[in-house]
Design brief:
Elements lengths: L5 E6 L11 H21 L11 E3 L5 H7 L2 H12 L3 E3 L12 H6 L2 H10 L5 E6 L6 H8 L4 E6 L12 E6 L5 E7 L3 H6 L8 H13 L8 E6 L12 H12 L5 E5 L1 H12 L5 E3 L14 H26 L7 H15 L15 H34 L2 E3 L12 H4 L7 E5 L6 E6 L34 E6 L3 E5 L11 E3 L2 E3 L3 E5 L6 E6 L4 E2 L3 E2 L2 E2 L3 E6 L9 E3 L7 E3 L5 E5 L1 E5 L3 E3 L2 E10 L2 E11 L5 E9 L6 E8 L6 E6 L2 E3 L14 E2 L4 E4 L3 E7 L4 E4 L17 E8 L12 E13 L4 H12 L3 E8 L4 E3 L1 E3 L4 E7 L6 E7 L5 E7 L4 E7 L5 E4 L1 E3 L2 E6 L4 E8 L3
Parallel strand pairs: 1-8, 1-9, 2-3, 4-5, 5-7, 6-10
Antiparallel strand pairs: 6-7, 11-41, 12-15, 12-41, 13-14, 15-42, 16-17, 17-18, 18-19, 19-20, 21-22, 23-26, 23-32, 24-25, 27-29, 28-29, 29-30, 30-31, 31-40, 32-39, 33-34, 33-36, 35-38, 36-37, 37-40, 38-39, 43-46, 44-45, 45-51, 46-50, 47-48, 47-51, 49-50
Helix pairs in contact: 11-12, 11-13, 12-13
């Protein structure tokens, strides 16, 4: 193959939100680097073009605050050098994990629109650095906003990059988008490996690297594109004057290869023009090896997953209120909540000393800030949901009589008088009809907390004498898609098909029997399909807990040995010796039935855990099994894992997964070299044998292993042992920045359903959405008008629909996520309001062509498994 004639070098700072310094310090540093980069650009402006300094702002998150605080002179200076090509801005908000949902992915690109519209910047390329993957949906979203080049710089510590490395390909998205992807070397290459910028060492390192590339059959290029950060502060480091001077002197001496300082946008445009027509196309998710670290803080990860769902509910209610002519929506506040949630999902997690010095101020302060992103987003979201829900309710109902703070001298009836005609207002924030059993929220009479709906507050926690319920009351509500209904709390949900007793619960569809020895499910009989789905693998039954440790004195080196002298930065210790222990000291309670639910509880002991309780439950009339563990975790700093096992009585298994909203088949729908040992699931996973199968919805813990426990396999291909899913609920395997231990009570909730035949993506997505999205319930409202209503109806079951108030206040934005894949036109029929106009918008809400509007019906063409966004404007009510 050709000799390397040119090195294209991008100088940037890798953006960790934390790791090297406290998160707030890091964000401040990156704003300071803009000024430093501009000074360096000006200092080298008289050099030859290829030796002039260029700086790339890796992510948009820290840049926007700098631009908004900048003086007119600072802005003009930045814009001048940006127009000159000396300072580039890449499109990603942060370097992200695969935890984000679809709306977060879209919103993570909103800063690109701000950079273009508010500051006149050109954003043509995206960078994802260090992280071992990126959501497949970005291939669609980036191309939809005019970003056509993405560079990856994978860190292969405890991970792996696709092959060949380096290399390039067209990355085709699931919905028909396409971006040019450069699968590049890690950013340590430029300064630390090739020793660019340091004349003392470069001749020792660089020639052999280039010689190896020149003889590779899978590298057809006569150039190498690489990234370079600061030689010492390799993460969160400042602009590098020494690199600029090195390139200048190197080229003045006419040394080979020629070195060109460039930017991702400039290089991507050149590369696409020169080589784009000769590159292969690939499809599939870039599944991230590093996603395993999110289980080091299982409680906060679970909180943030719930926040994702509640944000969607709050936005739906806000959109409904706006459609009807009301408002009060605060777009800046919701944007902050989304960014806080995304900052928890950002890849860094914690201090580089998290494992070596877990009790240090440096580590604890960073974890305090990181966890605050989850807690802050959650509490802001609850308040916005409560405000939106009450605004929605006030538009169609009157509130009951407010209670009064009870010092104890009043009776409950005096402190909390009941208003005649009040009941529960139940709202379905999903687009299809649902028959649901809901719990009556606690009676708090308008007392604290105001920033959280009563349905989410722990029951029986009095404040000012709030009236506790001796027993939860449940009612059934029949709801249309995007609809509401008023129901009476005095009409308990029927339990006509439920039964429970010693070691079992039962409804019309299922009978579930619990094994007294293990606490796992011994039998899960689907009466309709005539099949018992409960399986066993390695002595562990369905729903059983497994505690795992490493049988070695090498600590985390028994799992992976980090070695930066190697091209792949270390060695996987394949199939290390693990010790796995099941639950012990099992106590199975007696099943009970109450107002629409049959449930049974199991208490167990487990190594590493002071106690654990599981609730198995069936709801009247539903094909859904709830498995809800609460574990009381002890802090353990040695490498450990906790799994929840789901082995099934099925034949040869086929698997299907929801990866960031895209239904995927493992192996077939992922790039080579991406992780097969575990998968970060958004809402659901499915295993079937062609005749029948099971869909599992992990509400709190996103990591699943397929076919068996596959930790430590470092597999290039998925080779499942059997028809099983394992929730990898907790671990602390990382040796650097993820948590060394976790403790306290941690909920691990799962929902399971069975089906005939293979996986139906639409049915699986609907089941999981219903389990992840409880109806919004408000108590003590008396309707002023209709007892039922809906925002809109859609005529297609294969589309996920969300709605939100438009960011600029002009109407609402509706997103349609097609799971069916066929080209067709769907109709949105608005019932709560009359649309005045509708148009397509980009993922970042930029208006595009108008859509056909017939009376209250909008016709929307769909194309494949993509995201279609539209703006709907309404006339005055």
């Amino acid at each position: 193959m050709p000799a390397i004639e040119t090195l294209y070098v991008v100088n940037h700072s890798h953006t960790d939100i934390g790791f090297t310094d406290h998160q707030d310090v890091c964000l401040r540093q990156h704003r300071e680097y803009v000024e430093q980069a501009l000074a360096l650009i000006e200092a080298t402006a008289d050099r030859p073009e290829e030796s002039r300094y260029r700086w790339t702002v890796e992510v948009t998150g820290p840049l926007l605050p700098w631009l908004r605080d900048a003086s007119p002179a600072q802005l003009e200076r930045f814009q001048h050098w940006h127009r000159a090509g000396a300072i580039d801005v890449a499109a990603m908000q942060y370097n992200l994990t695969p935890l984000l949902n679809v709306e977060q992915l879209c919103r993570s690109l909103y800063p690109v629109r701000s950079l273009r519209d508010e500051y006149g910047l050109t954003v043509r390329a995206a960078m994802q650095c260090d992280v071992n993957g990126v959501s497949w949906l970005f291939a669609d979203l980036l191309s939809a906003i005019g970003v056509d080049f993405v560079t990856m710089a994978v860190n292969e510590v405890r991970g792996r990059a696709p092959r060949p490395l380096p290399g390039a390909f067209w990355w085709d998205g699931p919905g028909g988008g396409r971006v040019l992807a450069w699968n590049g070397l890690h950013y340590l290459f430029g300064r630390s490996i090739a020793k660019l910028g340091d004349p003392r060492f470069v001749d020792r390192a660089l020639p052999s690297i280039l010689d190896q590339l020149a003889v590779r059959d899978d590298y057809p290029f006569d150039f190498l594109y690489c990234q370079s950060t600061h030689p010492m502060r390799v993460d969160n480091g400042p602009p590098d004057r020494r690199m600029a001077d090195f390139v200048h002197h190197w080229n003045e001496e006419a040394r080979s290869p020629r070195i060109v300082l460039t930017t991702p946008g400039e290089f991507g445009a050149w590369f696409s023009t020169r080589h784009g027509d000769r590159l292969e196309a690939r499809r599939g998710d870039w599944v991230d090896w590093w996603s395993d670290g999110v289980a080091s803080s299982a409680y906060e990860t679970g909180i943030n997953r719930t926040t994702h769902e509640l944000l969607l509910a709050a936005e739906l209610l806000g959109a409904w209120v706006r459609a009807e002519g009301g408002d009060g929506w605060d777009p800046e506040r919701i944007a902050r909540a989304y960014e806080q949630s995304t900052l928890y999902d950002e890849h860094t997690w914690g201090a580089f000393a998290s494992i070596a010095a877990p009790d240090s101020l440096f580590t604890k302060a960073q974890w305090n800030r990181k966890s605050w992103f989850a807690y802050g987003a959650a509490m802001e979201t609850h308040d916005m949901l409560a405000r939106a829900a009450r605004t929605f309710a006030d538009g169609r109902a009157d509130r009951g009589t407010e209670g009064r703070f009870n010092l104890g001298e009043l009776t409950d009836e005096e402190a909390y008088p009941k208003t005649d005609g009040t009941g529960l207002l139940v709202v379905n924030t999903l687009p299809w009809s649902r028959s649901v059993v809901v719990e009556e929220p606690d009676l708090r009479g308008g007392g604290a907390p105001v920033g959280m709906l009563e349905q989410f507050f722990p029951p029986n926690v009095p404040w000012g004498g709030a009236l506790p319920h001796e027993r939860t009351r449940r009612v059934r509500a029949e709801l249309e898609g995007f609809g509401y209904a008023f129901v009476s709390p005095d009409e308990p949900a029927s339990s006509h098909d439920l039964a429970a007793g010693e070691g079992f619960v039962e409804n019309a569809r299922y009978r579930v029997e619990i094994d007294a020895a293990s606490g796992a499910v011994a039998s899960w009989l689907d009466k309709e399909l005539g099949h018992d789905f409960a399986g066993e693998q390695d002595g562990i039954g369905l729903g059983g807990l497994v505690y795992e440790t490493v049988e070695s004195d090498r600590d985390r080196d028994a799992l992976f040995v980090m070695d930066f002298s190697r091209d792949d930065f270390g060695i996987w210790q394949v199939d290390p010796a693990f010790r796995r222990e099941p639950a012990r000291a099992v106590r199975v309670g007696k099943g009970r039935v109450h107002e629409g639910v049959a449930e049974i509880e199991v208490d167990v002991q487990l190594a590493g855990i002071s106690g654990a309780r599981c609730r198995y439950a069936l709801e009247s009339g539903r094909a859904a099994l709830a498995v809800e563990w609460t574990i009381d975790k002890e802090h353990v700093t040695d490498p450990e894992s906790v799994y929840v096992a789901f082995p099934f009585a099925l034949g040869e298994p086929s698997f299907r997964l929801d990866l960031n909203g895209i239904p995927c088949t493992p192996d077939a729908d992922q790039l080579n070299g991406t992780v097969r040992d575990w998968y970060p699931v958004r809402r659901w996973a499915d295993v079937s044998d062609g005749e029948r199968g099971v869909t599992v919805c992990p509400l709190d813990a996103p990591l699943l292993q397929l076919g068996g426990i596959t930790t430590g396999k470092a597999a290039w291909e998925l080779t499942p042992e059997g028809p099983a899913l394992y929730s990898w609920a907790l671990n602390n395997h990382w040796m650097v920045n993820f948590k060394a231990s976790q403790g306290g009570r941690i909920p691990l909730r799962y929902r399971l359903t069975t089906h005939a035949g293979g996986c139906d993506d639409i049915a699986a997505a609907r089941f999981a959405a219903e389990e992840a999205t409880p109806p919004v319930v408000l108590r003590d409202y008396a309707p002023r008008g209709p007892r039922t209503g809906r925002l809109l109806a859609i005529d297609d079951r294969g589309v996920e629909v969300t709605a939100k108030p438009a960011e600029d206040g002009d109407g609402i934005v509706v997103r349609l996520h097609d799971l069916d894949g066929g080209e067709r036109t769907v109709e949105l029929d608005f019932e709560a309001a009359s649309p005045a106009s509708a148009c397509r918008v980009s993922p970042v809400e930029k208006d595009d062509e108008p859509l056909e509007l017939r009376a209250r019906t909008i016709r929307v063409p769909l194309n494949g498994r993509g995201i279609t966004s539209l703006r709907v404007r309404f006339g005055r009510p």
